[in-house]
UniProtKB/TrEMBL annotation:
The lineage of its organism: Bacteria, Pseudomonadati, Pseudomonadota, Alphaproteobacteria, Rhodobacterales. InterPro entries: RutC-like_sf, YjgF/YER057c/UK114. This is RidA family protein. Pfam families: Ribonuc_L-PSP. Coiled coil: none annotated. Gene3D superfamilies: RutC-like. It comes from the Bacteria.
Amino acid sequence: MGYSRAIVKGDWCFVSGVTGYDYSTMTIPDDPAEQARNCFRTIFRVLDEAGFAPEDIVRVQYTVIDAGLVDQIIPALGEAFGEIRPAATMIVAGLIKPEMKIEIEVTAFRG
């Protein structure tokens, strides 16, 4: 499937949906909070490579496979964002592989 992990257009960076894999080992933890932490590790690395910082994130979309997982992932979201307060949407939907419990997509602006 052809896609880009991220696209930079001027002062904008659009990061594709990231799932909870540790891409260095291609493993994925069962714990949804650890999956969320892996998502943010990947997102923050990609943003850094593109010349953006976590503080530049203005929009985030979370997709979780079950609303019952939200309470488990909230601590990981707070750890990642701290004082950053992007506009956010959370959707409950299926993901393409059964081991995936969360996918996170962000948009950053540095203007």
